[in-house]
Design goal:
The protein contains 18 helices and 14 strands. It is α+β, with helices and mostly antiparallel strands and 486 residues long. It has a domain of 189 residues: Butyryl-CoA Dehydrogenase, subunit A, domain 3 (Up-down Bundle), CATH 1.20.140.
């Protein structure tokens, strides 16, 4: 069943989601003004699936049932699927100018699917069949699933099993005949509050002493013992102001992150997909990281909006033809398309795993994400440069509408002759929102730390780069006789 955005929102109302914000329980997360924009972003992933113009990108055919499903619940069956995935993500970035929060679940589906296949083949377990049954549920119900990998980690110089507090990594507290009891937390969880389910994965490669931490499972968002503490964002309380509109920059869409806590949560066996198989934790992490680094194609969609906003700001400032402005906008486009090119390349170079699912080229996926840790910062800098200082010093929306202050704001904040002061303010607030405000956590900071911080990609680039083969190429061309080096 393909839900609509409205049906998705109503489905969240049926859940008893336990959310805390500013130290207090949020009784109605769906209609909370701080949370609701992020729900609207997820709703877009449902609505576009019903739009004939975008149906080919937003939907796929389930390889399990042959039925049409939302692409966010799909297991990639070809390189074409991998390419359509990133085209969908860029489209959604363009439509929301924010994080739309379903990518982590999609990437978790695909990484767990192939990893459980290989665990079962080598160990005689039945995790893959369990996972396929779970995936069928997700596809049938069109669930939004939070793929949860990042643990708080505590002392990062110590392995999970060596932590003073064992809960710094999600771990198995008890194994029962009918399931397991887990404790711990997952940090920085994008879209967790807006999800129907949480799909948990280990966060690092592990040793035998860490086997209690090698766990993967699925749990409903409102399961007993699961609760979330909402992450604070810059400018978030502007949403609490009466009739807030212009000052928000983006008054409809947004992202969200939370700290998700598992306080002695029971997970039935049919929803357990890894239970102590520590040797495969690294494989799962590597595959998820690769898929999710490919997913940063979404930043190019938000980048498209930011570039457009910067160009509009130049129009309102009356300088669209200035050579240095044109050059900066060209540079923004160059950086944005370079990010896109790497995401496209790692998709086009994907290959089939033993499970039948397609995996991206891991080297190129890591190069893609390494670029994303840098280029959005320069794009944002250039946008701020073009926008001018007024972006961060202009008076509020209430001042624009104030009986006394309004005429003065209207007079002195006007730009190019014949243009609207209000429209100029709206564009500048949008740039502020993406570069410094509530969307900045998804565009800038997540670009740095999401799917692994920069050093994680550099480690993978070193591992995947096959330096020895490159040395041999150089030796052959230069006619190097290695026997002379001994």
């Amino acid at each position: 069943m393909l839900m609509t955005g409205k049906e998705y929102i109503e489905s969240l109302r049926k859940l008893d989601i336990k959310v805390y914000m500013f130290g207090e329980r949020v009784e109605n997360p769906v209609d909370n003004p701080i949370i609701r924009p992020s729900i609207n972003s997820v709703a877009m992933t449902y609505d576009l699936a019903h739009d004939p113009e975008y149906e080919d990108l937003m939907t796929a055919t389930s390889h399990l049932t042959g039925e049409k499903i939302n692409r966010f619940c799909h297991i990639h069956q070809s390189r074409e699927d991998l390419v359509k995935k990133i085209k969908m993500q860029r489209l959604l970035g363009q439509k929301t100018a924010s994080c739309f929060q379903r990518c982590v679940g999609m990437d978790a589906f695909n990484s767990i699917y192939s990893t459980t296949y290989e665990i079962d083949r080598e160990n005689g377990t039945n995790y893959h069949e369990r996972f396929k049954k779970y995936l069928l549920e997700c596809q049938k119900n069109d669930w939004t699933v939070d793929g949860a990998m990042t643990d708080p980690k505590g002392d990062r110089g110590l392995a999970p099993s060596k932590q003073k507090d064992p809960d710094m990594y999600v771990h198995i507290k008890e194994v029962r005949e009918d399931g397991i009891i887990v404790r711990g937390a997952k940090a920085h969880q994008t879209g967790s509050i807006n999800s129907h389910e949480h799909l948990i994965m280990p966060t690092i490669a592990m040793g035998e002493d860490d086997k209690d931490y090698a766990v993967s499972f699925a749990i409903p968002t409102d399961a007993k013992g699961v609760f979330m503490i909402y992450g604070r964002q810059s400018c978030d309380t502007r949403k609490l102001e009466e009739a807030a509109d212009i000052d928000l920059g983006n008054n409809t869409y947004g992202g969200q992150e939370a700290l998700v806590i598992f306080d002695d949560v029971f997970v039935p066996n049919e929803r357990v997909f890894m239970c102590g198989e520590w040797k495969y934790a690294g494989m799962l992490v590597e595959r998820f990281a690769g898929y999710h680094r490919q997913s940063y194609a979404c930043k190019t969609g938000v980048g498209d909006v930011l570039i457009g906003a910067a160009a509009l700001a130049a129009d309102y400032n009356g300088v669209p033809k200035a050579s240095h402005i044109k050059d900066k906008i060209i540079e923004m486009q160059h950086l944005n398309e370079t990010m896109w090119a790497c995401s496209l390349a790692c998709s086009a170079e994907g290959s089939k795993t033993d499970s039948g699912a397609y995996l991206i080229d891991l080297l190129l996926a890591n190069v893609c994400k390494q670029n994303v840790t840098r280029f959005p910062y320069e794009i944002a800098r250039l946008a701020e440069d073009i926008a001018g200082g007024l972006m961060v010093t202009m008076p509020s929306e209430k001042d624009l509408k104030g009986e006394f202050t309004g005429p003065w704001v209207e007079k002195f904040l006007n730009g190019k002759v014949g243009t609207s002061t209000e429209n100029r303010m709206r564009v500048l607030r949008l740039i502020e929102n993406i570069t410094l405000g509530t969307a900045a956590v998804g565009y800038r900071t997540e670009s740095m730390h999401g799917a692994g911080s920069p050093q994680a990609q550099r480690i993978m680039i070193a591992r995947q780069g096959n330096l020895e083969a490159k040395k041999e190429m150089a030796r052959r061309i230069a006619h190097v006789d290695v026997s002379k080096d001994k």
